[in-house]
Design goal:
The complex is a heterodimer. Chain A is built from no helices and eleven strands. By secondary structure, chain A is mostly beta strands. The chains are: A mainly beta, B mainly beta.
């Protein structure tokens, strides 16, 4: 089955700086890669996603890049703000008939004032 | 939370007792999922449903069963709860068969003593 590795587990950045979280996946047939933000006591919320036929996608301060050859994808947050502090999860959807998402273990992003 | 409610939101139970968690959606979505979230593991798929009475196993299905008798409700049952099933349980929905986007509910925190 699919395996997703996520790094780092904790990331601390100064407010206004950029943050980058990286994930690798194992199944070359995986075709969909979402990123979720989870605040304490809440369910994960989708913030951006990318499909395997696209190399990069941007939504305001958030961007995701995908390198299919290397089987890795990254989340980029620019001009970080205090409300960006949360746990971020990457995930991958395997190709073929299997359903459901395989998640990384999460990154705790801390924005220092 | 994309029209998803979960009940109960918190539950404490004893080892060996059966427990049923409910996920209710108001969006008439075909696909529904149950995940569990544990520290150091991210989210892991337990079971999913692709229609009324149509369900399949996920990565960590042992000790769990599901039922879906109506489009709007997806039930997760722990047949005989164990301490290893202490976790936070999230329900998710996916809309169109051609869309991979999953939206999560607020979660149920379960403690098995």
């Amino acid at each position: 089955g699919e395996n997703v590795e996520q790094h780092p587990s904790t990331l601390s950045v100064q407010e206004g700086d950029s943050a980058v979280i990286k994930c690798t996946y194992s199944d070359s047939a995986s075709n969909y890669f979402p990123w979720y933000k989870q605040e304490l006591g809440k369910g994960p919320q989708l913030i951006i996603d990318i499909r395997s036929n696209v190399g990069e996608k941007k939504d305001q301060r958030i961007a995701v890049t995908l390198n299919k050859t290397a089987k890795h994808f990254s989340l980029h947050i620019t001009e970080t703000q205090p409300e960006d502090s949360a746990v971020y999860f990457c995930a991958a959807k395997a190709g073929g008939g299997a359903d459901g998402l395989t998640f990384g273990k999460g990154t705790h992003l801390i924005i220092q004032p | 939370d994309a029209g998803i409610t979960q009940s109960p939101r918190h539950k404490v139970t004893e080892t060996g007792t059966p427990v049923t968690l409910r996920c209710h959606q108001t969006e008439n979505h075909r696909y529904m999922y149950w995940y569990r979230q544990d520290p150091g593991h991210g989210l892991r798929l337990i079971h999913y449903s692709y229609g009324v009475k149509d369900t399949d196993k996920g990565e960590v299905s042992d000790g769990y069963s599901v039922s879906r008798s109506k489009t709007e409700d997806f039930l997760l049952t722990l047949e005989s709860a164990t301490s290893s099933q202490t976790s936070v349980y999230f329900c998710a929905i996916k809309g169109l068969a051609t869309s991979e986007t999953q939206y999560f509910g607020p979660g149920t925190r379960l403690l098995v003593l």
